[in-house]
Amino acid sequence: MVKKVKLTNDEMRKFAEVFAYYDYGDKETGMVPYYPGYPDRTKLINYLVAMISVANEYNAVYSTSDNKEGIIILTDTTHPYPALASIKMMYRMVKALGLKDFGNIIKKFQEGGASLEKKYRDSKKQFVQIELLAIRKEYQGKGFMRPLVEKAFEVADRSDLPVILSTDAELKKDKYVHLGMEHINTRTLGDKSYMYDLVRK
Asked: What's the gap between Cα 167 and its chain centre?
């Protein structure tokens, strides 16, 4: 049963590593090469831990069970983080990358057009967003992704909201489509780097 959990520092880092060392195959690179220090992933991992740590602190992390095979982090615009949480997240992310590199990453995310999140916010639409979903390597391919995505749908359905998501991997995009989301746009961020926008209306 999917439930809210608290992660240890070690657990946060392990889930960040799942993202940082994802195998994109030969057709694409994702966003990973744009983070400072690449091919070293240390700063990318620290950046992800910064994001996860704030969600963890404000009770926004769900897991498949107490064994924490996988996690999902959701944001809901009808129940936003308090202002202090947003300040903490920004501070921790900037600290992880450095101010200049943080700015460069934000610019890279904006290449190829406005993000789905920005479009929804600009249109004053409420939504639930999947911020991060990660399955520990030893549990991948064993069905742990489905209950996490279904939890996002459940949270959204309580307030009749859409679920939105952007991912930088085609394989991840295909998995979300299989689980009930609709791929509505692909943004080109750079050579072999794409962002796939999905929604479940």
From this structure: 7
